[in-house]
Amino acid sequence: MPRIFSPEEISEVVEMLLFQDLDIRSVTLSLNLQDCISATESVITSCIEEKVGLYSKRLTEAVNNVSEKYGIKIVTKRIAVTPISIIVEPIARKSFEEACSTAINIAKSLDRIAISSQIDYIGGYAAFVHKGFTQGDRVVIETLPRVLATTQTVAAMVNAASTATGINVDAVIDVSRKIVETAYSTPKGTGCARFTVMANAPEDNPFIPGAYHGLGEPEATINVAVSGPGVIEATINKLGDNVDMRTLHDTIKRAAFKITRLGELIGREVAKELGIQFGIVDLSLAPSPKIGDSVARILEAMGLEYAGAPGSLAALYILTDAVKKGGTMATSSIGGLSGAFIPVSEDWGMSRAAEVGAITIDRLEAMMMVCNTGIDMVAIPGDVPVETIAAIILDVMAAAIALDKTLGVRIIPVPGAKAGDKVDFGGLLGSTVVMDIPRFNCRKFVERKGLIPPSIKRLDKG
Amino acid sequence: MDKGSEELVVISVIGADRPGIVAGITTVLAKHNVNIVDIAQTVVRGIFSMIMIVDLSTGNISLSKLREELSMKGRELGVEVSVNHIDVFKAMQRV
């Protein structure tokens, strides 16, 4: 009888799992909460407690069962809910203050459920303001600092730009103020790690803080985020220095195929256990602060001294393109961000590259052209003016709509810190050096306010 | 090839070579009536490596309990034991 698998095939997978940190970064349950909309706070909170409470217990159970069955580590369990701005609209119509208090109570309630059911994060404290504000949107933005300071697991997102509508500069300014306020109301500004401002936020993103349950989604669905930078790094190291670019690309593509297949297997099984629809696999390789789990190290394995060195865009392009091509062969359920992540503090190699000056704001802005990270987990001095933060966000939003892609900004002003200081956010958030920010004045530009019109790409839709 | 009733699991053992590794691992399997479908073993430069495909359907132990017992045995023997459902390998190694 022929062997089912050759020993080499089995060893390859076992090595990936044991020594190259291949795991499932997150299983995210995306859950509709529109049935909890009410003009009475107690009705909303009891509905959320019942529904999210039930689903979160079942999610934890299903994830544990599947992890046990397959022998695969699932690092985090998350829930993404309908944007809270929509949930509070009826109360916001009556009173803005009352709606703010309700929104905070909803967030606290979600936080309690998450903690008691061992859910790592709950995403969806979100507002979509890329063309303007509703009262519910204003409530979410107003309460961001309070929510991020008083909860541990709630993640927030504001979508401030889209290719179809342009950039809401007013929203970017408001959000920048809230980023600073959040920084000063949480230790080391860590609350900002649970907030992102995005352009073209996808409805099925399994990653925090951008995850929310989109309006086009079914009642409940499972979205999966894979890890596996270590697998790609090890694969490239095995190739050695003397292979050409095409072979490099092909080898990454093959490894990405295997990683994605594992994500799909686990996602489908968790969905089956829960009796709900399987949603998507996000092809992005999520890094972590562990040395062997770094996207920057992949670029370095390709032959760069540090991520950020000249050649980094080309290297990152090879990686992102190969991951997309390998991943798309592996699953027909593609979604989320599906690119490459280079969050500075959360990626061991990115953090080291920032320390030696190879990674700067300018390099990140360049690298986001060929991935979908934007400016992510970047610590900046606590005294950077609000208008400078707003201008940095505007730059990222502009790149996103010009290139018709998803990008985000997760920036952390660290109170009292100067450029060059080291800051440790703890756990998966990692540690990093506080980055220098250009101090050239941009206030007059930002304070023009209003909307930047959509790009010419909008006319392609007509 | 696969019979519907089979519940195939891949056991992989790796570590410094020493007497008794195969005996230690297979004793656990025999104790629970778990059938070995395929086995391959090598020693390269003192590193012992063994891969087994076993069928749990003949046995009286669950996958998670078997993993627990084998990991414990692995610690005794000073080797790393990994136990994964065969579907992981089907997903990753077959188009």
Automatic annotation (TrEMBL), chain B:
Residues 10-84 form the ACT domain. CDD domains: ACT_1ZPV. PANTHER family: UPF0237 PROTEIN MJ1558. NCBIfam families: PRK00194.1. Belongs to the UPF0237 family. This is UPF0237 protein ENT87_00775. The lineage of its organism: Archaea, Thermoproteota, Thermoprotei, Desulfurococcales, Desulfurococcaceae.
